Amino acid sequence: MTKLTDTHISLAHGNGGRLMRELIEGLIADSLGDRLLDIENDAARIDLDQRDAELLITTDGFTVKPLEFPGGDIGSLAVHGTVNDLAVSGATPHYLSLNLFIEEGLEVSLLQRLLCSLAKAAGEAGVKIACGDTKVVPRGEGSGVYFATTGVGLRPKSLQLGFSHIQPDDRILVSGPIGDHGIAVMLAREQFGLRGDVRSDAASVLAFTRTASEFSGLRYMRDPTRGGLATVLHELHRATGLGVRVYEPQLPIRDQVKTVCEMLGYDPHYLACEGRVVAIIAADQADSLLQRWQQLPNGGRAALIGQLNRHDTGVVLETELGGERVLEELEDDPLPRIC
Amino acid sequence: MQQRREFIIKGRVQGVGMRPFIYQLATGLQLGGWVRNLNGSVQLQLEGDQQAIHRFVQLLKNAPPLTAHPVFVDEQLLEPTHETGFRIRSSRTTTEADIHVPPDYFLCPDCLRELNAPGDRRYAYPFINCASCGPRYTLIRQLPYDRPNTGMADFPLCPACHSEYTDPMQRRFHAEPVACPECGPQLSFENLNQSQQGSQALQTTLELLQLGELVLIKGIGGYHLCCDATNSEAVEHLRQRKQRPHKPLALMFPSVGDDELDAVRAELHVEATEAAVLRSPARPIVLLRKRPDSRLPGLLAPGMQELGVMLPYSPLHYLLLARLERPIVATSANLPGEPVLTDAGEVNRRLADVTPNRLHHNRPIVRPADDPLVRLIQQRIRPLRLGRGTAPLELELPQPLPRPLLACGGHMKNSVALAWEQRIVISPHVGDLDSPRSRETYARTIADLQQLYAVQATSLVCDHHRGYFGSQWAAAQPLPTCPVWHHHAHAAVLAGEYPQESRWLVFTWDGVGLGEDSTLWGGEALLGRPGDWQRVGSWQPFRLPGAERAAREPWRTALGVCWQSDTRWPGAPAGVDLLYGAWQKGLNSPLTSAVGRLFDAAAALLGLCQRASFEGQAPMWLEQLAWQGEHPGIELPLVAEGPVWRSDWMPLLAMLLDESLSTADRAHAFHASLARALLAQASELKQQHGDFAIGLSGGVFQNRLLCELIMQQSQKFGLRIYLPQQVPVNDAGLCYGQIIEARARLQSQ
Ligand SMILES: [Fe+3]
Ligand SMILES: [Mg+2]
Ligand SMILES: [Zn+2]
Ligand SMILES: [Zn+2]
Predict the structure, then answer these.
(1) In which pathway does it act (chain B) (predicted)?
(2) Same domain, A306 and A171
């Protein structure tokens, strides 16, 4: 088998010649191993039995700085992001496509680690890489590597999810502590020189979404990625017109995340998660779903965090002392208002 | 000589007992004619002896009803019709709106006499009132001000009240809230084990207060949370229950002695102007200095030499305090920053954990009004918060407006303003706009003002800060919006209040506000006039580590300025490496030039306050400490950076950490240095730019010591310095400045 002998990526690795073949065969195919369907053909054939199911497709691009952070890296993120988008739609993901945009000068050993991590994540989520493409961009025109993945999956036709199913009085569940990913990446990026013990929550949420899908009262699921939980709650409010009320003391947030947020003045409600699900479910089934979630690996801190109602006119946070605060929509750069 | 004259009288002439007053005056002088309400004004025709008419006008101008502000706008000579009797004609409504909404008044001396007269049919009746006293703004559902349009609609008058109500010779002629024990509202008390009505309810309340219990008491503009102010255990209990460890609690004193102030004087210093305002119909909370021998618990206002004090203003308060014979804590019943609660159901639901004891009554509070707050600063009483008795505040604008405007105000300490033609009306204090309830009250107050005054705004004015709720609210309305910079609005307040000055240098010192360059301003000197401000003075910028959190945690700003100046702060909190990293990278550490934050830093460096449990705590405590010190302050470097002169705060740090000085002296030196820096900027700028009037605007100038030091030191420079007098100097006054600023900009377009 061809081996990639260079230690750093050069522009020539994207020119279609020998070096590129070495990169694809010797590094990419090798790293992805049995997750890779085929590199011989221009187009791949995929097997999907869709008698009682609908075919779902989603796509996502991945840029993250640093490329590796505690609890994950851009490789695993490229799988989890797309897998989770399918999962919260109620689908089982089957295939991914994979595009790589590599910046000239990237260390080959780093690329290899990222690809192995990607393969491992794909294996755990049960998805195969069906096709892909590689480009090399000149130095300074990328930040190491960008990934893009497209995923296809199947959703049972019987599963009806969406904003339109949501009723006032439905409950809001979250599958685990929020903000871990946002804080882990921020600490790693800013290189504060601290041995941060916060790890990203990046993971597949399939176990959670499959469990939730067994409940007839499940209305809607969403992964709180960019913009965090607050953004999901605002989407809920906007799409349904219902009030959203969250009980602050119930929100699962790790102590370490709280400490960092308090110190730096961040609000954990807006921090990204990469391995959490928010589910909206009928009030009478909320407790049993919660119990089931709590029994799953990584589900110990799942929580019922709030409910929808007709009387609130936005997203309201009920604080410990019985106070109420409006949870604002995320601003690009929130500035202090206290005068 | 006989003649007939017609007068149109505007100003505050409705809901103040004007027509019966005029009736009695005219009848007494044997004048014929008639009077009627004409939307917001009074139309009056008098016929009779010329001298008598002249005398009538003099009397009405010089000694009008207690709460009236008559303004004679028109007078003409008519053909005599030989009309002899005087009558009150029914109101006429026209399409032109000139409505004046009266605020809520105190209990007038006449009613007070009746309240205390055992034979009177309203003896000890807690809802006694007359045409010149009692609730108005908080009672009126809509205008015209007639009983069916008030919260009294559900109380049909008994025959006795009815005859007083319809007799122009009586004090209660058309007194819309008129009531008596037969037909009017009643008290009711409830807690977990009892519920009582009427005088029994009052009695139980009294006994519980005497026992040191907390009681929620429904007043004029909302509920108070009350306890015996002389009982430190009760006060401590109240603080625990309200989760309010430090914020000063307002007190209500019993009215004792000829001028009602004997009980107050036993504990506090009262200057003549303070005495006058304490007794004024608005009955505001006045900040007064404690006497050295005061026995009041320190817990009422930790860290403070001053206490907020008011006199009873409703008959209920008179009854309660007269029997209690000691001051009570009367703090508004609400959650921090939220508007005061007005509804029994809400009080029961939201304050269930505070205390089970509630004294309700069944006269509805149509809209909330917190107690107003004033302070004597630089020899004048200045409002710090508008509310019951002072709002809606109606003022005349220096110039007319082309179209009605609504000003959205600021985000904290919000008030809003409606302005049209040459008038502006400012709402009572709404509160901080973070909670859903504040936001509801905000929207309701805006709708309400427009409905009450029958004026619809066609444009909105808001702050440039997009995170302010007012800006978001404005963006959601189908009306054009004119954003105004925060400090331009602060500056414009002075230009509005003192139109005789045409060129200003306004020092706009406050917490923070969004500036034109997207940094947080708060220590600026703005030169020019409304619609045309140029920043010419400021402070060296510094970072706020943790952004908004810095406003609640003064230690953050203190660290920020120490890091920036390489100052070692021995008292610095530990475990802040992460924050230091963020500060170095500018991460969530925005730049500011806000003097309010320098006060925070100073309070932290002196060890006074590291974390504030209420807004403004650190600067307030610093000022109070500084009163006990003495130090002329230090000279701060002033550097020109383009057109902007910047004062450098750095030398302050070494002085604040200088342990050879007492903390009080250091606190005083901080104030004195800031005053000197302000005057150094002013005199430098005067040389450069020529003559101007100097204004002080923004929350920092609620600080009496700072203002007085500035005034004292300014004498040698020969500068004219102004402070706002009618409008709060803090963010509650922003709405007024927004209107002045917007008008100037509409003009120049
Ligand atoms: Fe301000
Ligand atoms: Mg996506
Ligand atoms: Zn009266
Ligand atoms: Zn009656």
Answers:
(1) Protein modification; [NiFe] hydrogenase maturation
(2) yes
What ipTM does this complex have? 0.92
Minimal C-alpha gap between B475 and chain A (Å): 14
Helices in chain A by DSSP H: which ranges? 18-21, 30-32, 74-88, 108-125, 180-190, 206-213, 228-240, 255-264, 283-295
Q: Tell me the CA–centroid distance for residue B124 and ligand 4, in Å.
A: 14
Average pLDDT of the segment spanning B503-507: 98
B470 to A289, A312, B341, B414: CA distances (angstroms):
41, 18, 21, 9
- Token pair for residue A169? 């009085």
Put simply, the answer to whether B579 touches A326 (Cβ < 8 Å) is: no
What is the distance between the alpha carbons of residues B30 and B21, in angstroms, rounded to a whole number? 14
**How far is the alpha carbon of B252 from chain A, nearest alpha carbon, in Å?**
27
Residues of B in contact with A321 (CB under 8 A): 243, 335
Please give the single-letter amino acid code of residue B51: Q
Same structural domain for residues A90 and A135? yes
**Which residue bears the tokens 């060296």?**
B540
Are A325 and B467 in contact (CB < 8 Å)? no
Q: In terms of residue numbers, what domain contains A98?
A: 11-156
Chain B residue whose CA is closest to A196: B578
The whole-number pLDDT of residue B749 equals 63
**Mean pLDDT value across residues A117-125:** 96
Set B4, B5, B37, B147: catalytic member: B37
The verdict on whether B588 is a catalytic residue reads no
Contact A192 B578 (CB under 8 A): yes
pLDDT digits 0-9 by tens, A210-268? 999 999 999 999 999 999 999 999 999 999 999 999 999 999 999 999 999 999 999 99
What is the pLDDT, as a whole number, of residue A61?
Answer: 96
Q: Structural domain tally of chain A? A: 2
Q: How far is A122 from chain B (nearest CA, A)?
A: 35
Closest-approach residue (CA) in chain A for B700 = A339
Among the partner residues B410, B581, B585, nearest to A339 by beta-carbon distance: B410
Domains of chain B: 2-88 (3.30.70.100), 101-185 (3.90.870.30), 187-361 (3.90.870.30), 392-484 (3.30.420.360), 504-730 (3.30.420.40)
Q: How far apart are CA B452 and CA B367, in angstroms?
A: 12
Query: Above 80 in pLDDT, residue B95?
Result: no
CA–centroid distance, residue B317 to ligand 3 (Å): 15
